[in-house]
TrEMBL record:
Active site: D175
Taxonomic placement: Eukaryota, Viridiplantae, Streptophyta, Embryophyta, Tracheophyta
Protein name: Pseudouridine synthase
Top-level lineage group: Eukaryota
Protein keywords: Isomerase, RNA-binding
GO biological process: enzyme-directed rRNA pseudouridine synthesis
Reactions mediated catalytically: a uridine in RNA = a pseudouridine in RNA
UniProt xrefs under NCBIfam families: rluA_subfam
InterPro entries recorded: PsdUridine_synth_cat_dom_sf (IPR020103), PsdUridine_synth_RluA-like_CS (IPR006224), PsdUridine_synth_RluC/D (IPR006225), PsdUridine_synth_RsuA/RluA (IPR006145), RluA_PseudoU_synthase (IPR050188)
Ranges of residues in domain Pseudouridine synthase RsuA/RluA-like: 132-286
Region (Disordered) location: 1-34
EC number: 5.4.99.-
Amino acid sequence: MAGGAAPRGFSPGMAAGAGGGGGETPSNPPERQDYIFRNGRRYVRPYYFEFISHVKNRWAGKTIVDLFTDEFKGRPREYYVRAVNCGRLQVDDQMVHTDYIVQSSQKISHFLHRHEPPVLGGDITILQNEVDVVTVCKPALVPVHPCGQYRKNTVVGILQAEHGLASLFPVHRLDRLVSGLLIFAKNADKAESFRQQIETSLLQKEYVAKVVGVFPDGEQIVDANVHFNAREGRSTAEVCDGNGKAPIGKQACTKFQRICTDGTHSIVLCKPVTGRTHQIRVHLKHIGYPIANDEVYLSENFSPRSSKGTRINRATTLACSLPSSEPDSCADVGNKDTEVGEEFSIDPMCTNCPNLAPLGYDADEEGLWLHCVRYTGPDWSYECPYPDWVFLDNVSGKKLKS
């Protein structure tokens, strides 16, 4: 790479984010040709990305090489020396030498060859496309908007790339593992109208879940506080234990109604009155009927996500590729109709290349049997078809209508 420049086709600020993250910018929006489809999965062509962080007080006074060696142990010291020398690590948009002392609040740019995790293939189904609202059916495993390792492989990114729908405002969110109805406002005024209805509790939400066991007949109301542990990635349900100690979680209430059962599993209609993290999942677990494929709440011996080896840690995410002696860029890799054999330009020193998926990707992950079917407001209602897993074999009971 001549002159120690950053990767060809990439300039500081192209895909910058603040505080160690990154977001969409006009110069690098998702496009249809960014995606590769293989074995039922949607991949994103690897692309160069500027990962930005700002020097914390405890980092100040260290050399840039010492800083990255100490804080981001996913790569050896020699890697960071070469990254600085070739311009893949810059300070305040300038190349520096390996002995450069960083100061508090300075901006550090780390140029990455970024590999996003794959999601389920197929289009995002548009249900209604109105003047100021669009509703879609979100597949499981696809995040709603850019977060973590996902940037283009999101509902927002795919809608922009394949349907030209940009600048959408999510009215509500679904967890990545959850499928079903998503509502987007097309302008800020409509988004504000929805926000006011949410804040005044004027919206009603309905989900369906497939749970273990024969769920009781009749409406079941669960009123138990929900406490979310961000480190473990799971919630717990809390009720007053009679000793005067108040629960530390947030007040939460969910109404459940059995739709049908086959004696082994039940399909349950879930109406969350509040909206806490994992509320439906933890309330079903609390009353003894967890979602049938929910590994987080099925077992008492759940391993926190912070200890799982399949998760990509921060150091690995930050590690970018070493430069080669030749300029490199991401070339065209085909279109949606191609299944195998696509070729794309790779960074020879990239940890992930020639694989498309990032290190640690869990290829066996499946979508949760929890699906959003309906949102209703004061003068509107939007619905989504039921997923295939709802229709149990040899079911006795109420017939579903989608």
